[in-house]
Specification:
This protein is of the alpha/beta class and 243 residues long. The protein has six helices and twelve strands.
Length: 243
């Protein structure tokens, strides 16, 4: 089993003290002991690989760092624009996309979204998505966690699509399969996942004007909370990032 990953503010060499919530999780939940391997990361690509040198109390351990590595940003970069699902399905989508390997997620308030991110509720929901990405990043042993952007409007999503090297909208009526779409070797891929009610004609038109074509995943129709994960896996395989 690979070494567990814990989040720190800064990755350094030498002896590092892990304390607070991360230290408590390492000591009291994971029950790490002296001599066990551990990885510390800042979530931005840097990782300190070492062993536990000492444990103190219930929330502090000392890590002797043997090596500091930097994981370069992968190419092409994959961003999923995720329409807001109902209930906790948004966190499920973020969790599984993070575990799969997505690079960024943009919450989107689509016209047909039942869920509305407004004021305090929106801030709390966004914080949950970001916390989910952090925990899933650690669980999947990533050194570079996906960024979770602020919630975007349709106009902002269109601008993001216009700047992409490949832009697509997942749509059950798409004439072409995503599995055969021409993909760039570098740059950015931006994929839009609509809400349970589907992408509206007006949104499709705006995204089409920005250069995003509609594509289908397959013969079955996936829920909005699973479509992004399936599409990310497909793109990672096709671009060689899973090679």
């Amino acid at each position: 089993m690979t070494a567990p990953v814990f989040l720190v503010d800064e990755v350094t060499s030498g002896t590092v003290v892990l304390k607070g919530s991360e230290g408590r999780h390492a000591v009291s939940v994971r029950r790490l002991r002296v001599g066990e391997e551990i990885v510390l990361t800042d979530g931005s690509g840097a990782g300190a690989h070492g062993t536990v040198a000492a444990v103190e109390g219930k929330d502090t351990l000392y890590v002797e760092v043997a090596e500091v590595r930097t994981e370069p940003a992968a190419e092409p970069r994959i961003t999923v624009v995720q329409a807001l699902p109902k209930g906790d399905r948004g966190e499920v989508a973020v969790e599984t996309m993070t575990e799969t390997g997505v690079d960024a997620v943009v919450p989107w308030q689509a016209a047909r979204c039942v869920t509305q991110w407004k004021a305090e509720r929106g801030a709390k929901s966004l914080a949950k998505w970001r916390a989910t990405a952090r925990e899933a990043g650690k669980q999947s042993r990533r050194l570079r966690f996906p960024g979770i952007a602020d919630a975007a409007t349709t106009k902002q999503v269109a601008a993001l699509l216009a700047d992409a090297d490949f832009a697509a909208v997942l749509h059950e009526e798409g004439s072409a399969p995503l599995a055969s779409a021409p993909l760039p070797a570098t740059g950015s891929i931006v994929l839009v996942v609509g809400p349970e009610g589907g992408v509206s004609p007006e949104e499709l038109s705006a995204f089409g004007a920005a250069g995003a074509r509609p594509y289908r995943l397959g013969s079955s129709v996936l829920r909005t909370s699973t479509a992004g994960t399936a599409a990310t896996a497909l793109l990672l395989g096709r671009t060689g990032r899973w090679g």
